[in-house]
Amino acid sequence: MSVPAHSTSVNPATLFKGPIRAIWNVQGENVPTLWWPAKGVPPSDKDFWGQTQHTVLIMFPGNPGLVEYYTPFLQSVYDTCQERIDIFGASHLGHSAGGHITDPSRMYTLEEQVENKIAILDRLREIYPAETRFILAGHSMGSWLALQVLKARSSYIERVFGLFPTIHRIADTPNGRRLKHLFRPTVRAIAGGSVSVLRAIFPDPKGFQSLVGLMTGQEEDMAKVTSQDLLHSSVVKNCLFLAGQEMVEIKVLDRQLIEEHTSKFVFYYGKTDEWSPIENYYEMQSEFPKVKSYLCEQGMAHAFVLKHGMEMGQLVGGWINDH
Fold first, then answer.
1. Which of 143, 150, 91 has the alpha carbon at shortest distance from 116?
2. pLDDT over 70 percentage in the chain
3. What is the pTM of this model?
């Protein structure tokens, strides 16, 4: 993606309400992205307050990896930081449908997702000044992706926020044990076919969205993402395929990495999270007492983006402001 020429009198942050949506081509893969540019001038110059050091928060979704689910959350972070930081979010490979997808039948591996996230950081480093502060935020398995990016590019990462992190032993969690059969190839094929049938029965987007909202209890904005972006055969199959890979590959806690970068981490756990049980919080506190780890006192669910995006955004924005 190229950065357009600009003058100091025009800034994208003043032209748009909410994020700028674009498809980025990263190493030949088309990736849906959201970008909240900081108020001031574009990233190649000093910002509005005369600061030469920019702050960029990069969001890695969980699974499903549709960045649109995170719009209210990231908007809340942006507002809490008084619009003084840039925020960038990207969907996972294969977790979107539309004209930008060249091969809907392709299933993307966990390793390919890691490589794509590293490439996204490298692309952002090309756009922003050398002294830019990069902060990674990961939700669920996105926290594990953030750890892999930190391992590969540690000198460029200032902080890492793990929100309801699934960074080890996913298959041994209550949900991992309960849902593991859904990730088999036969089930993936049935699920993908069922979604295609549903879309054929309910061709009207508004009607389909209403049905999804009724069946899931999701608010209108989240039901819109589910119906328009998630419920496509190729997306559902990629989500289930990736989940199966997570069960196999995300097993051992990378203690050495956490020990080496103790001061960079903030982990946030839920009390009733069945993907990252409360035992993980106590384990983190016991093994790494210098790591900032918090236990949610606000009753947020693992999928906080569905109902608690604003509250979580205020917390994360506070962590950024306080540093």
1. 91
2. 91
3. 0.92
